[in-house]
């Protein structure tokens, strides 16, 4: 099953992906997670990406296209993949199309998780993340058992640099300018399905699963 989980920053892509990959047994390919791991490890890629990420801007297409080409060629993508955070521009989508044709794994469906801007700001500004295992929480909607501590690994949670309100606004502006046009792109390709992402996590999961079940 070859799927793109699409949506604005804070729509709940990462939250849903974590459960979906357990249910469908396909790898979660999050370009945001890959870039953050490179920043953490101080790699050349991480050094190049950090400034863009901290400002809420997109990392250049040339960097992302190379990264995704390598990742999709790994063995664990043999039976499918769940892309999260890629593509984010028309050139990235065009490049993806070419890569997927080369490797013979065309997209089955693009699932767009639709959430209003007010809710996105509320979700992102309250998000807390584990620096160690990447688990994500929310101070109101999904709080950890012990305040500020990761349930999974016990590390101290932190607020992502790009989850400060002024950066969130910039990310939403960039999304509207550069990424939102992909909704039309995939609608025209006949593979877009819209999901109401304003519901609670379980309801959104049921809706997304309902779509993915068709491609099992
Ligand atoms: P990335 O990490 O991809 O960030 P994003 O798309 O902005 O998405 P988020 O991770 O912020 O949100 P999400 O939809 O996963 O929401 P989550 O599930 O965490 O990218 C970061 C940066 O990397 C970019 O700005 C860019 O610089 C760079 N980058 C990455 N990919 C790139 C690309 N392809 N090209 C160029 N640059 C790229 O949920 C958010 C919060 O809401 C959490 O607290 C969660 O607990 C809560 N929540 C989730 N669902 C619900 C619900 N249903 N109800 C209530 N609360 C909920």
Descriptors:
alpha/beta; 7 strands; 216 residues; 49% helix; Rossmann fold; five-stranded parallel beta sheet
Structure characterization notes:
By secondary structure, the chain is an alpha/beta fold. The chain has a domain at 2-115 and 178-211: 3-Layer(aba) Sandwich (Rossmann fold). It is 49% helix and 13% strand. It contains 9 helices and 7 strands, in the order E-H-E-H-H-H-E-H-E-H-E-E-H-H-E-H. The chain has helices spanning 13-24, 31-41, 44-55, 61-72, 90-103, 117-125, 165-179, 181-188, 201-212, and strands spanning 2-6, 28-30, 81-84, 109-114, 127-129, 136-138, 192-196. Strands 2-3-1-4-7 form a 5-stranded parallel β-sheet. A two-stranded antiparallel ribbon has the order 5-6. The longest helix has 15 residues, at 165-179. The chain is globular and about 45 Å long. The chain starts with a strand and ends with a helix. The model has no long low-confidence stretch (mean pLDDT 96). The structure holds BIS(adenosine)-5'-pentaphosphate. BIS(adenosine)-5'-pentaphosphate binds at residues 7, 9-15, 31-32, 35, 52-53, 56-59, 64, 85-86, 88, 92, 123-124, 126-127, 136-138, 141-142, 162, 171, 200-201, 204.
Helix run count: 9
- Choose one word for the global shape: globular
Give the second-level CATH assignment, the architecture of the domain at 2-115 and 178-211.
3-Layer(aba) Sandwich
- Proportion in β-strands: 5-15%
Short description:
The protein has 216 residues and is an alpha/beta fold.
